[in-house]
Amino acid sequence: MRSALSPIASARDVWAWAMYDFANSGYTTVVITAIFNAYFVAVVADNAPWATFAWTASLAVSYFLCLLMAPLIGAYADIRAAKKRLLVLATLGCVLFTAGLYFAQPGALAWAVLCLVLSNFFFGMGENLIAAFLPELAHSRGFGRVSGWGWGWGYFGGLLTLALCLGWIVWSEARGLPAAHAVPQTMLITAAVFLIASLPTLIFLPERAQPRAGRVADAWREVLRTLRETRRFPDLFRFLLASTCYQAGVQVVIALAAIYAQQAMGFSVKETLMLILAVNVAAAAGAFVFGHLQDRLGPVRALTGVLLGWLATVAIAASSTATSAFWLAAHLAGLCLGSSQAGGRALVGLLSPHSRRAEFFGFWGLAMKLSAILGPLSYGLVTWITANDHRQALLATAFFFLAGLWLIRQVDPVRGRRAALRDERSAKGGCR
On the CB side of 354, how many CA atoms lie within 13 Å of its CA? Predict the structure, then answer.
C-alpha cells in the first residue's frame, strides 16, 4: 500500500477519502440504478409512453447543469483551495434533495423531477471534487490502485444502502404493503447513510492545496484559458473525448438497469434488487482488480480490454430471453462497470498538472456529465420511437462503446504525462 501513496499522504487520509465513495455510492445505486428509477417510471409517471423518456430527460437536465458548472467550480476550488468547503456544500445539497424524494408520490411528477435534478446535480459536484483529491494521495505509479480502492470500497457502500432498502421493502411486503408503498421511505434511508458515512471524509480528509493569488472572476479566465490551450494537452483531451463516448454507454447501464430488467425481462422489484446487489459485488471486484492491472499493463491497454467486455455485455443482454443469460450479462456488466469507472479517474489524475487538478477533474466531470446526457437520453428516445422496445434501445448503446474503443487507442499516456509535467514546470517558472 505504501508504494502506491504519495509521500505526504497517510493511510488514514486514503481511508477518509475512500469513505466518500462508500457514502455517495448509495445514491447512485438506490436512486439512479435500482429503486427510484423504476418507481419513477411505473408509479410517479404511471407507465405513460413517455415515462422512460421523462426519466432520462430529467437526468439530462441535471447533467447539463453539471456540465456548465463543473469546470468553473473546479477552477474556483483551485484558486481558493476550496475543495473541502465546496465538498461539504455538495454533500449537504445531495442529502437534502434525496430526502425530498420521499414526497415524490403518484401524481407529484414536478416535485419528483425537481428533487431528482437538484440531488443529482449536487452529487455530480461532489463526485468531481472528491476525485480532485486523488493526486494528493497517490504516487503517479499508484493512481490505478488507489482509485480502484476507492471505487471498490464505494461499491460496498452501495451494497450496504441497497441491502438496508431491500430489507425495508421485504419487511413492508411481509405486512401486506406493496413495494411501491415502501419506496419513498428508502429515499430517507439513502440520505441518512450518505450523510453519516461521509462524516469521516468531511472531518479527517485534509485540504493540502494552498490558495493562489486571484479573484473569483479569475475562475472564468482559468476555464477559458484551458479551453484555448487544449493543444498543449492533446492526450488528456483525446481521453476526455473517448471517455464521453464510452461513458455514454456506461451511463445507460447505471440509469436504466432496473427499468430494463422489469420492462424487458419481467423482473419483480425483489428480483431487480437482487440483480443490482450482484452487479455491485462484481463491480467492487472489478474496481479492486482493475486498479492493479492498470498499473501493470498501462491504462490504455487495460481500458481497451474493458470496452471489449462492455460490447460483449450489450450483445448478451440484448439477445437474452432466458434469465440465466441475463444474469451472466449482469455479472459481466458489474466487472466492466467497476473497472471503467476506476480506470478513467486514475488516467485523468495521471494526465493533470499538479496545480490545476480540480480544474482538470472539473473537465473530466464535464465529459462524464455530457456522456450521461447522450447515453440515457438516446436510450429514452429509442424506446419512445419504437413503442418501448428496450432491446433495440440497448443495442443502440453499442455505438458509444465502439466509438470510445476507437478513440482510446489514440491516447499516449506517457506523452500526456510529460505534457502535464511541462505545464507544471512552466507554472513554477512563471512562464505560463
Answer: 17
> What pTM, to 2 d.p., does this model score?
0.77
DSSP 53-114: HHHHHHHHHHHHHHHHHHHHHHHHHHHHT-HHHHHHHHHHHHHHHHHHGGG--TT-HHHHHH
Beta bridge partners of 138: 5
CATH 1.20.1250.20, domain 11-205+228-424, yes or no: yes
pLDDT in tens, 134-182: 878 877 667 667 877 777 788 889 889 999 998 998 899 888 887 778 8
Q: Domain boundaries in the chain?
A: 11-205+228-424
User: For residues 398 and 311, what is the distance between their CA atoms, to the nearest angstrom?
Assistant: 6
Q: What are the grid coordinates assigned to 67, written together?
A: 456540465
Where would I find the H helices in 218-268?
Answer: 218-228, 234-263
Q: Which distant-in-sequence residues (6+ apart) come within 8 Å of 143 by Cβ?
A: 134, 135, 295, 346, 347, 349, 350
Residue 279 Cα to chain centre, angstroms: 15
pLDDT tens-digit series, residues 295-351: 777 778 888 888 999 999 999 988 888 888 889 988 898 888 877 766 777 788 788
- Three cell numbers written together for 39: 418507481
Between CA 146 and CA 186, with CA 365 as vertex, the angle to 5 degrees is: 80
